[in-house]
């Protein structure tokens, strides 16, 4: 690698807020064949908002929200924060939760005023032995619109669904189109459920979706895509994404993301703009061309 080409590439990136941490990252960017993108906070804004609350007949919405928010107030998950904000906006009275337990990739459980409350995805409900009953069809409908659906069970019975929307970033679709134009495969990787992820992927033009991935399994999914020596970049923002960023040939962190993601990555997108992913690959290709 000629030092001049590296300097030019690094400088071009820096002017656009595309920060390559070293020369190897710049060269690797040229050989990327697959870009894996985390959904929440990377392709989407990571600003979840409650859009729907559905309860089973006979259950009071305010009361259901009161129990759900009591659990979510103790969770650090972004979805939990959205639920709590919604409950507070509706002036739902507070309740105290005890024996709180966070179940990574599933949700959370606690005891609220003597009731066992579980809040999370289908996988959590399976663990809890909860049958969705008449909420199952509504859950599917909500997921088909791209909502993340949080299920709440009280004392082992499915009581409510909370639909949560997280808008795609302005330029996500364009970024996918540009990557395709560069001959690069784009894969969405997420812990969210299959139907929700599929809907958002369709809106953005992404073919391949790997959904319902547990936080600890993201790196293994990247390794799987690397089989046969295929060069893979991973773009992410969360603490959960760090092992996958490390596993990838090129780890790319969203600038607005967590410190752990930024420290682990080989490349940081300071503007948090997905369009800077194809930009980074083009800068890499330009640099390598000059080296030859
Ligand atoms: P990701 O950030 O990729 O969506 P997570 O592993 O953090 O993945 O979460 C996976 C899924 O688990 C979420 O989409 C949600 O359905 C469920 N979940 C996790 N934590 C909570 C929580 N505190 N409240 C509700 N649902 C949760
Ligand atoms: Mg994320």
Descriptive overview:
The chain has 13 helices and 13 strands. It has 292 residues and is α/β, with parallel strands linked by helices. It has two domains: 3-45 and 168-291, Rossmann fold; 49-165, Calcium-transporting ATPase, cytoplasmic domain N (3-Layer(aba) Sandwich), CATH 3.40.1110.10. It has a seven-stranded mixed sheet with strand order 1-13-12-11-2-9-10, sandwiched between helices. The chain has a six-stranded antiparallel sheet with strand order 3-8-7-6-5-4, with helices on both faces. It starts with a helix and ends with a helix. The structure holds adenosine-5'-diphosphate and magnesium ion (MG).
Describe the secondary-structure layout.
Blueprint: H1 3-15, E1 18-20, H2 23-30, E2 34-38, H3 39-43, E3 49-55, H4 61-72, H5 78-89, E4 97-103, E5 107-112, E6 115-120, H6 122-128, H7 135-144, E7 148-154, E8 157-165, H8 172-181, E9 185-189, H9 194-204, E10 208-210, H10 218-225, E11 232-236, H11 242-247, E12 250-254, H12 259-264, E13 267-269, H13 276-291
Helix pairs in contact: 1-13, 2-13, 4-5, 7-9
This protein binds adenosine-5'-diphosphate and magnesium ion.
Mean pLDDT: 96
Computed CA radius of gyration, to the nearest angstrom: 21 Å
Helix content: 40-55%
Please give the domain count.
2
Class per helix and strand makeup: alpha/beta
> CATH homologous superfamily of the largest domain?
HAD superfamily/HAD-like
Number of helices: 13
Give a count of the beta strands, DSSP E runs of length 2 or more: 13
CATH architecture verdict of the largest domain = 3-Layer(aba) Sandwich
Which sequence of strands runs across the widest sheet?
Answer: 1-13-12-11-2-9-10
């Amino acid at each position: 690698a000629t030092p001049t080409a590296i300097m030019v590439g690094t400088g071009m990136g820096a002017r656009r807020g595309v920060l390559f941490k070293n020369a190897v990252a710049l060269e690797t960017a040229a050989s990327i064949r697959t870009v894996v993108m985390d959904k929440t906070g990377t392709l989407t804004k990571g600003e979840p908002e409650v859009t729907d609350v559905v309860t089973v007949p006979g259950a009071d919405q305010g009361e259901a929200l009161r129990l759900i928010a009591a659990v979510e107030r103790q969770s650090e998950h972004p979805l939990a924060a959205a639920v709590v904000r919604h409950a507070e906006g509706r002036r739902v009275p507070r309740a105290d939760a005890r024996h709180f337990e966070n179940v990574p990739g599933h949700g959370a459980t606690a005891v609220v005023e003597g009731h066992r409350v579980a809040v999370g995805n289908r996988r959590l409900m399976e663990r809890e032995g909860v049958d969705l009953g008449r909420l199952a069809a509504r859950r599917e409908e909500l997921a088909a619109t791209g909502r993340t659906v949080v299920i709440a069970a009280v004392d082992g019975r499915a009581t409510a669904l909370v639909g949560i929307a997280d808008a795609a970033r302005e330029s996500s679709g364009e970024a996918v189109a540009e990557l395709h134009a560069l001959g690069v495969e784009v894969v969405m990787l997420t812990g969210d459920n299959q139907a929700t992820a599929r809907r958002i992927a369709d809106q953005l033009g992404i073919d391949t979706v790997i959904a319902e991935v547990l936080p600890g399994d993201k790196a293994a999914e990247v390794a799987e895509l690397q089989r046969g020596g295929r060069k893979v970049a991973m773009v992410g923002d969360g603490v959960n994404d760090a092992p996958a960023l490390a596993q990838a040939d090129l780890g790319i962190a969203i600038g607005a993301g967590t410190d752990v993601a930024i420290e682990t990555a080989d490349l940081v997108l300071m503007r948090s703009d997905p369009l800077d992913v194809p930009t980074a690959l083009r800068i890499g290709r330009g640099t390598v061309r000059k080296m030859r």
